[in-house]
Specification:
Order of helices and strands: EEHHEEHEHHHEEHEEEEEHEEEE
GO biological process, one term: protein homooligomerization
Number of helices: 8
Number of strands: 16
Pfam family, one: BTB_2
Helix content: 10-25%
Number of domains: 2
Keywords: Ion channel, Ion transport, Transport
InterPro entries: BTB/POZ_dom, SKP1/BTB/POZ_sf, T1-type_BTB
Shape: elongated
GO cellular component, one term: endoplasmic reticulum
Strand content: 35-45%
């Protein structure tokens, strides 16, 4: 690659190496004009363009120029400062997108686990505000059924007949239902239901153990417990409310070439986060 194609910038002491074509995505911007030495804010020192601005925020500017997307971390909060930086560099389309802060901010995702223990069986129903999360969780949960002897919840199943997979009940895209435990069949034979939750490969029959593993799985996926309450004291239905922050939307910018004119840029606000 020739020296003309490689551009080095030092922004507030942070060094960036990129292509000239990347900086020329928007010809009217100050970054594009900088390459023609047409801006006094950018000093050429030892072959590097120096500018006294925030280097950390400039990393998001560079990411935008390279991908034509605005994708910010979940914990990002400096929207106004980044908008101000975009305006300084003459990237007014980016500044306009950043002004619509509500599209970029992460939003809380709610999940509710209802648990009911009735004699030798435990019933679970899970509701989620994001259908994608519920779908992902449903792929992790497997229910098996088979017959066994004895009345203990922890009776071994290895010597019994092969277990049969059972589908989860999915009343809608936003919830699922399953249960585990034992139910009397005939004589001393019991129909047993086991639950496995990936990546844990155990087959659990005890409802309390399944609840503990389910909550632990959700905690590892970024959820935290908000509250617990008794939905129905008569039916002994407990409700666990959990929450996590969804990743912010990723906004894509399309740059079109129109005949007889310079490139025209338009914001295409496409939310990457599904299940809303």
């Amino acid at each position: 690659m020739s020296n003309r194609e490689v551009v080095v910038l030092s922004v507030g002491g942070v060094r960036f190496v990129t292509r000239a074509s990347t900086l020329q995505q928007f010809p009217e911007s100050r970054l594009a004009r900088m390459l023609d030495h047409d801006d006094q804010e950018f000093k050429l020192v030892n072959g590097e363009f120096f500018v006294d601005r925030d280097g950390t925020l400039f990393s998001y500017i560079m990411d935008f120029l390279r991908t034509l997307q605005v994708s910010l971390p979940t914990n990002f909060s400096d929207y106004q400062r980044l908008q101000r930086e975009a305006e300084f560099y003459g990237l007014y389309l980016l500044a306009d997108v950043l002004s619509q802060e509500h599209l970029l901010r992460p939003r809380p995702e709610i999940l509710e686990v209802r648990f009911s223990l009735q004699e030798m069986q435990a019933f679970f129903r899970i509701f989620g505000s994001c259908s994608t999360t519920v779908e992902t969780l449903a792929d992790q949960i497997t229910v098996f059924t088979g017959q066994q002897s004895g009345q203990s919840w922890n009776s071994p199943f290895s010597s019994q007949k092969p277990l049969v997979l059972l589908p989860l009940e999915r009343p809608s895209h936003h919830d699922m239902f399953f249960h585990c435990g034992t139910d009397c069949s005939a004589g001393d034979q019991f129909v047993a239901r086991y639950v496995s939750i990936k990546p844990d490969d155990r087959k659990l029959i005890n409802g309390t153990n399944v609840l503990g593993l389910l909550l632990d799985t959700l905690f590892k996926n970024g959820f935290h417990l908000v509250s617990t309450r008794m939905v129905s004291s008569e039916d002994k239905v407990e409700c666990y409310s959990l929450e996590r922050m969804q990743r912010p939307a990723c906004l894509t910018v399309t740059v079109n070439q129109t005949p007889g004119s310079s490139r025209v840029a338009q914001a295409k606000k496409s939310q990457v986060q599904k299940g809303k």
